[in-house]
Amino acid sequence: MFWVYYSFKADTDRGPIISCIPNYLFIIIYYFIYCTVALAPFLTSWGFKAEYFSCSVFKAKCVWKHPPGDEIYRKGNISVFEVDGKKNKIYCQNLCLLAKLFLDHKTLYYDVEPFLFYVMTEADNTGCHLVGYFSKEKNSFLNYNVSCILTMPQYMRQGYGKMLIDFSYLLSKVEEKVGSPERPLSDLGLISYRSYWKDVLLRYLNNFQGKEISIKEISQETAVNPVDIVSTLQSLQMLKYWKGKHLVLKRQDLIDDWKAKETKRGNGRTIDPAALKWTPPKGT
User: Region annotation Disordered: residue ranges (predicted)?
Assistant: First the structure.
């Protein structure tokens, strides 16, 4: 994706510059902290000095090597931190402002207190680096398990988005609830969720040994909302209405294709439920 950046200076000869940087980037100066290497070639060509990218003052004052909140998951170098929007208001507001650079539809910036933020990081010898996050309401009457979800651009197409979605459903399973993302979904979000729901359903059907397939039982085992299950089955042409009932068709051709892709994909990046150390918060 590209944005059109218009310089603050009058420069009618050059006109607009096609850039991968949002046109409102310079409103948020501290964004430079997150991507100094990637932005340096663009910004130096616009007259910014190289020393701006060292962030020496910031590095001297900031001693944090990981997000605030509680680390509730760790497997290898991947961690997830639960951050309360009420207890860590400034951090969560800044996280939302950062997400706005990449999510045009995002409207929540400052009213973060009713939300919990689940921040995924990748660790190395310098600390924990932001991979992505999702937020969820502390008390959702519609059982939404995700309000907003973002994977940072440099981590896209590497399986992290699906890990975030899977983690949100893992929390729903621990809560013994059926979850669903808040609507409306963005185009990219809808594609990601449909892909996840497809994997979940085909995995379930591949392991299913019974005679009658129940949408209710699928929902209880996977924590996926029945509405999302039905829409996914319809898209796969695995749902048939017959004699007043909806029947789930176990299409072996689709299952075999899925198994072949899973074998080719290998282990990949997955969430290990055993690595979760979390109790559902109460009265937050």
Answer: 264-284
